[in-house]
Amino acid sequence: MPENGEQRIRRALEELKAATDLILPTAGQVWSRSQFRLAYRPQRNAGASHFGMLLVGLYVLALVLLTTWSGWSSIGLLTMVAFAAVAACVFARSISRSFRS
Amino acid sequence: MDEQAFRALYDATAKPLSRYILRLCGKQDAADDLLQECYFRLLRNKRADMPLADARPYLFRIASNLLHDRWRRGQEFSLEDTAEQALELHPEKSMDAARMLQSLKPRARELLWLAYVEEMTHREIAAVTGLNVMSIRILLQRARREAQVLLEWRGTDHA
Questions:
Q1: To probe the interface with A, which of B2, B33, B40, B142 has the most A CB atoms within 10 Å?
Q2: Could you give the CA distance from residue A27 to residue B14 in angstroms, rounded to a whole number?
Q3: What is the pLDDT of residues B21-33, one digit of tens each?
Q4: ipTM value greater than 0.90
Q5: Which of B19, B22, B88, B108 has its CA 20 to 30 A from that of B76?
């Protein structure tokens, strides 16, 4: 009985499957490569970057308030410097993580 | 997931997945990279503990997405590597099938392989490709028609 089109496709693909000579890496190789990549992949510090942006925003706001209102005391200036220092620390940590990964 | 569990998952899924990738992309080195990437993504997404029945279509889905990324970048199917292997084994028919796959569009190639070699249902193919079942039915019908024409044409060509 002659085979129909569908049977012909199936047979051709099954023959192709049988003729495919596979050279597979071992499970151990795939595992160790994946573990290496998982350990050294770049970390996404989304939380840290949002926190850093928030600090920068607050710093700019404080700067605007300080320059537009003359009634600020030295406490205001110290607060600004503290903000700037924290923002710089967060930024520096974020950069060092990026370089390490 | 520990290494022992990964080994069991790999042993159960690597052969069909590798064959699928190799036959769809046509290059052994690219297929090796894609296979590694599939398991890396499975582990990265912390989905490796899922049951085998779910892990298999999930891995095929990752492979399909990676293959589509390659095709989008213009890295099309090439017969050069796989043709050599097939010629060594000398099955003329499989060369016909390899050329038939090469002549088809990537989507048709993918659907035919999943339907006929992996024997997946339309629903499973839909889960792998991200298409809906109705589209699978139509696209598979079209792919079947195109493959049939190509195989008939190659048959008369060889005769």
A1: B40
A2: 9
A3: 988 888 888 888 9
A4: no
A5: B88
